[in-house]
Amino acid sequence: QVQLEESGGGLVQAGGSLRLSCAASGRTFSSYAMGWFRQGPGKEREFVATISRSGGRTYYADSVKGRFTISRDNAKNTAYLQMNSLKPEDTAVYYCAARSTPYSNRYYYTSSDYNYWGQGTQVTVSL
Asked: Which of 93, 94, 105, 122 sits at a 20 to 30 Å CA gap from 7?
């Protein structure tokens, strides 16, 4: 089992950057593929980015491709989401998620694939 805690959210102007962190408890962080999802006001939760256990494969939603970068540091039990060129439509609560998998290079991009979720961190992008 793993517990996840996001941090790094806040208020930023359009065009700015933020880096979200997702700290995981436990000793088997490298056994989990990781994902970031978000839920904007009045919207359903949507996929943002995912990274395989090894960190060797990543995948992004079209809406963030080229602007956001997902990464992980297995030694620090932490996943990251670097967000650049932020837009007002990126305003949302951002959640990290983890899924145990035996496949080192597999990623997952649907919320139902994930077993564990953090509480979320608010990102607000102003004009």
From this structure: 105
In terms of Cα–Cα distance, which of 71, 88, 57 is closest to 20? 71
- The conformational region for residue 77 under phi > 0 = left, psi -120 to 50 = alpha, else beta, is left
Cβ(5)–Cβ(22) under 8 Å? yes
Q: What are the pLDDT tens digits along the chain (127 aa)?
A: 899 999 999 999 999 999 999 999 977 999 999 999 999 999 999 999 999 999 999 999 999 999 999 999 999 999 999 999 999 999 999 999 999 999 999 999 999 999 999 999 999 999 9
Q: Cα separation of 124 and 11, whole Å? A: 5
